[in-house]
Amino acid sequence: MKYLIDGHNVIARLSNISLADPHDEAKLIRLLARWRWQHNNPPVTVVFDPGDFAVHGRRRTKRSGISVRYAPYISDADAVLVRLIEKSRQPAQLTVVSSDREVQSAARRQGAHTIPAGAFAGELTAPSAPEEEPGEEPPLSPEEVEAWLRLFNGEQ
Q1: Residue 129 has pLDDT above 50, yes or no
Q2: Distance between CA atoms of 41 and 47, rounded to whole angstroms?
Q3: Between β-strands 113-115 and 2-6, what pairing exists: parallel, antiparallel or unpaired?
Q4: Which residues fall within 8 angstroms of residue 27, CB to CB, at 6 or more apart?
């Protein structure tokens, strides 16, 4: 199953990220990376309204294994999402995450699955999520820190 996500739509429904936060998109991508890791790394494309792509210099990029797209200034994320849904070769294998009615209607017309942004936001922040980022080692215990300090200071 491939996931196509309306980025700002999901951010607006998260209690721990605000659309006013200048790092909201990066924070969502970190949550999505953890979610992907927990769900056997399905393909994920997140689409944002225009704006931040000017900072990154590209409308398309890949971060943490997630395809990230920014709508052109003359458009918005919803229009990009509808176009991606309509161009999908396997819409039955597509899950669209958005609460926008136009996006959901386009998905249903093509036979894609839909998940409301609020429901998906709840899944992203579910308490069963691990505290560490994917691939991140747990912090060292105080005893391990002491052992490493002794080793680095030449004490055995």
Answers
A1: no
A2: 18
A3: unpaired
A4: 16, 17, 21
- Give the pLDDT of residue 54: 47
pTM higher than 0.70 for the full model?
A: yes
Q: What's the CA gap between 151 and 58, in Å, rounded?
A: 46
Q: What is the mean pLDDT of the chain?
A: 85
Query: Is 118 domain-assigned?
Result: yes
Report the distance separating Cα 71 and Cα 50, nearest Å: 5
Residue position matching structure tokens 């894609």: 112
Confirm whether 152 is domain-assigned.
Answer: no
Q: Which domain holds residue 116?
A: 2-130
* Cα of 27 vs its chain's centroid, Å: 8
On whether residue 140 sits in a domain, the answer given is no
User: For position 65, which CATH number holds?
Assistant: 3.40.50
The backbone torsions φ and ψ at residue 42, rounded to the nearest 5 degrees and listed phi first, read -70, 155
Number of domains in the chain: 1
